[in-house]
């Protein structure tokens, strides 16, 4: 792996690692102090719940399994976007983060909504729908990988699931589609097509008279060129 790719991989892993570290520090604080920070979640259509738009993805239930289940897909989703969609990564993640929270505040049930699962659904949806909107090999392959890894998550958008903020999941998935559509024309460096000579026209380059000098003129040594000239004079008749 080249140094450039190593640096790119490091950059794509650093940000998700920092986010996960913050999440686990907050979770450890809840467990050590026996405090429940759920009151910092989104409470739809109430002023007191607006702060949850910015804070709720960092707050999880005191049951550590909630955070464990969210940690891997959150890390994978952010790392994939930062590595493969570097040009739009930060803007896309920030929009998914904020728009999901605002959507839950406007349309969710009047209960406290906490956890990063809505953002996760936004990230996964963004990667999948990039394969639909961009239609290049890289995006399609990534979409298929996401489909194989997390296809079961789409059941989480179904309503009437006790103890689960299915609204966060559904709104996050919709936001992922919207953000993917917004950035569909933002071309990454590795998505720029390389143009080649058409096979049907390639023979024109090999026809006699297409070049002013012989094609191997500059690959010959001085002695070879002198020898060819000498042979030409010796074979010529005047």
Quickly describe the structure:
The chain is an all-alpha fold.
What does this structure look like?
The chain is an all-alpha fold. Helix content is 59%, strand content 0%. The protein has helices spanning 3-33, 52-55, 64-84, 89-107, 117-133, 137-150, 166-182, 199-202, 222-235. The termini are far apart. Residues 208-212 have low confidence and may be disordered.
Low-pLDDT segments: 208-212
Number of helices: 9
Secondary-structure element order, N to C: HHHHHHHHH
Main beta sheet, described?
Answer: none
Please identify the top-level CATH class of the largest domain.
Mainly Alpha
**What do we call the CATH topology of the largest domain?**
Rhomboid-like fold
Q: How much β-strand is present in the residues?
A: under 5%
Mean pLDDT: 85
* Relevant CATH superfamily of the largest domain: Rhomboid-like
Number of domains: 2
| Class of secondary structure makeup | mainly alpha
Shape: elongated
Radius of gyration: 29 Å
CATH architecture descriptor name of the largest domain: Up-down Bundle
Number of strands: 0
The N- and C-terminal alpha carbons lie at a distance of 63 Å
The helical percent reads 55-70%
């Amino acid at each position: 792996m080249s140094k450039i790719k190593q640096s790119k991989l490091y950059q794509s892993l650093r940000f998700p690692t920092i986010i996960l570290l913050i999440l686990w520090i907050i979770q450890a604080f809840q467990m050590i102090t026996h405090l429940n920070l759920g009151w910092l979640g989104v409470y739809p259509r109430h002023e007191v719940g607006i702060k949850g738009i910015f804070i709720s993805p960092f707050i999880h239930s005191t049951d550590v399994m909630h955070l464990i289940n969210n940690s891997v897909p959150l890390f994978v989703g952010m790392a994939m976007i930062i590595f493969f969609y570097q040009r739009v990564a930060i803007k896309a993640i920030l929009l998914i983060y904020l728009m999901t929270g605002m959507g839950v505040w406007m349309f969710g049930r009047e209960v406290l909504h906490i956890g990063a699962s809505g953002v996760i659904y936004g990230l996964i949806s963004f990667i999948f729908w990039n394969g639909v909107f961009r239609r290049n090999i890289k995006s399609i392959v990534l979409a298929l990988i996401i489909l194989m890894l997390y296809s079961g998550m789409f059941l989480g958008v179904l309503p009437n699931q006790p103890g689960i903020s299915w609204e966060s999941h559904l709104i996050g998935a919709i936001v992922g589609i919207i953000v993917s559509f917004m950035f569909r024309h933002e071309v990454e460096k590795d998505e720029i097509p390389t143009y080649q000579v058409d096979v049907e026209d390639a023979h024109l380059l090999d026809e006699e008279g297409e070049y002013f000098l012989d094609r191997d003129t500059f690959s010959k040594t001085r002695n070879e060129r002198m020898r060819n000239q000498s042979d030409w004079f010796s074979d010529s008749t005047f």
